[in-house]
Amino acid sequence: MEKTQDVIGPISGNILFYTTPEPLSKDLHGSLGVQRMEKPFGFATKGHVVPLTVAEFTFAAISYPIIFAGPENMPLAVMGINTDENLFINEDGSFVVGGYVPAYIRRYPFVLAADEAQQRMVVCIERNASIFTDRKKAELPLFDDAGEPSEYTQNAIKFCEDFEGERRRTDSFVKLLKDLDLFEQRESVFNMPKEDGTFEPVKLAEYFAVSEAKLNALSGEQLAQLRDNGALEKIYNHLTSLIGWDRLVAIASERALKRDQAAA
After folding, report:
1. Helices 151-179 and 231-241 meet at what angle, rounded to 10?
2. Whether pLDDT at 78 is above 90
3. pLDDT digits (tens, 9 = 90+) for 113-171
4. Rounded-to-integer distance, Cα 97 and Cα 228, Å
5. Nearest by Cα to 156 from 101, 108, 94, 100
6. CA distance 36 to 139
7. Between vectors from CA 81 to CA 76 and to CA 83, what angle results, nearest 5°?
């Protein structure tokens, strides 16, 4: 959080789930507080892919395919096969029982964003988040009576700072994979059954993944280095997670069937 006398420049970048991010300050937000919600994830119902840090691979691999996408090979948790449909968040804002909640979602409505004017990171909040309410009605204030960040706000800021640290560690992990030329382009294809008993291939996604052939071609010394720095475990988390495409298709099919039945 920046001091109120600091001049904050425009916030750069397009941040998933954030439409009105504002630099956090007691002048702008001293009258706000937080009302805890039992089902708080409604904001992410259209996030069919969500950024993931490498520290989360072990947990996320149980729930979702982990892919790499875009020019930066950003790790993503695939949470739906259709654009704007997250299969793990219900319409009432609850998360599917047993699903891993990515840290990117858990940090909302706080976020660290780049200040273009002074080339630094500032703590922001999504001002229109439904969790915010008038301080007098709120369960938890954003600032205490002395104008200092409340314990809740301090914890949220710490979470954002930790997330940023993990994001940078993730960048280093991706760079390592690039330097070793381990990426290959892949497609996820679903064979859709037709009325005549045949199948029609439907492409679900194009993405980057670690090539098992390239991985196996590394020298013993290179593999030992990946093992010792913890990267090899994360690579296998990623490769194992790709089995989850079939699970996503099954969940999407079941959800579509229920919608059809409800409409009928």
Report:
1. 90
2. yes
3. 877 665 788 999 999 999 999 999 999 999 999 999 999 999 999 999 999 999 999 99
4. 34
5. 108
6. 7
7. 85
Can you give the pTM of this predicted structure?
A: 0.89
Mean pLDDT of the chain: 90
Residue 6 pLDDT > 70: no
Q: For the chain, how big is the Rg over CA atoms in Å? A: 21
Provide the token pair at 30. Answer: 């001293």
β-strand partners of 21: 126
Which residue's entry shows tokens 């858990």? 106
Q: What's the sign of the alpha-carbon dihedral 24, 16, 249, 236? A: negative
Q: How many other CB atoms are found less than 10 A from the CB of residue 56?
A: 22
pLDDT tens digits, one per residue of 179-231:
999 999 999 988 777 767 677 788 899 999 999 999 999 999 999 999 999 99
Q: Residue 36 corresponds to which tokens in the numbers above?
A: 């805890």
Task: Tell me the C-alpha to C-alpha distance, in Å, between residue 84 and each of 48, 63, 205, 222, 240.
Answer: 6, 18, 14, 40, 25
Residue 1 clears pLDDT 70, i.e. is over it: no
Q: What is the 3-state secondary structure of the chain? A: CCCCCCCCCCECCCCCCCCCEEECCHHHHCCEEECCCCCCCHHHCCCCEEECCHHHHHHHCCCCCEEEECCCCEEEEECCCCCCCCCCECCCCCECCCCCCCHHHHCCCEEEEEECCCCEEEEEEECCCCCEEECCCCCEECECCCCCECHHHHHHHHHHHHHHHHHHHHHHHHHHHHHCCCEEEEEEEEEEECCCCCEEEEEEEEEEEECHHHHHCCCHHHHHHHHHCCHHHHHHHHHHHCCHHHHHHHHHHHHHHHHHHHHC
Nearest to 64 by CA among 41, 89, 36: 89
